[in-house]
User: Fold this.
Amino acid sequence: MVTRESLEKNQISVYAAALIVGGIVGWASPRTGGFLEPMVSFGIAVLLFSMFCQIPFLKLREALSNGRFMGALLIVNFIFIPLLVYILIQVFPQPSPVLIGVCLVLLTPCIDYVIVFTQLGKGNERLMLASTPVLFVIQMVMLPFYLWLFMGQEASQIVRIAPFIEAFIYLIIAPLFVALAVQLSAKKHARGLKILDFTAWLPVPLMAFVLFLVLGSQMDRVVKDFDVIIAVIPIYVLFHIVSPLISRIISSVFRIGPSDGRALIFSAGTRNSLVVLPLALTLPGEKATIAASVIVTQTVIELIAELLYIKFVPNFIYRDLKVA
Assistant:
């Protein structure tokens, strides 16, 4: 019999299976992948709703007042991560369309499913949720500056605020308010309590479904432009290796505890690929296709990295403190 505990215990295997099946489906049937693509954002929204239902929102005020964490979060995401990206693109120089895609995706911290991965990796998901408005606003302000700094005036002109606002409302605000309504209903009605209990079953299967959707919908792009995008794979792999180490060091400098430190690691290692993809598609002609493929490639590598983070971050990179 399947239980919540067995699902959570075997979640890595479930996610790996979802990635494999999604990759096979997307590779074997591009037409099916095109059908799956519009479902990705909706899947993430439902996933976040199920996770939000498990968060005690009355404690969010405490999370917002955590100045030490917020300071570390901003320093990592908007100073050290851009510095890491700059070093990587100097070591692995790329043509302009590829470079635009790399910069778009690596310079924008995730504001949606990072909350889920933080929770699965035993990080403080309340802090991550509380920080999303801050990350959202600052990345909108800083992204044109970073693109201008790294690539010049042409790249900085492609940034549009609309996709960021749409994603924030659709993927964060709407699921959040629905989850709050369910929590309030659970305090007053038995039916609301049953719904809340049911949502506790959903994060693992929904995460597997979202992984399937993402890889299934994007695999065709990756295969078609593989000869172009293979050059960016070392950038992404090194990014996902180095960013947790940077976050771990900053956690020590700021004296951040294990749960908060893990949240910092996941924030630094998880990028806003599904939000910046529409920005890449606004580029003219072939540039749009190449930049989009580069961003999709990062998504695939990131999903694999997140599955490893869930295992390694709480068990090796930032373990719980031993009590004497």
Summary: The two ends are 39 Å apart (CA to CA). The chain has 18 helices and no strands. Residues 280 and 288 are 6 Å apart (CA to CA).
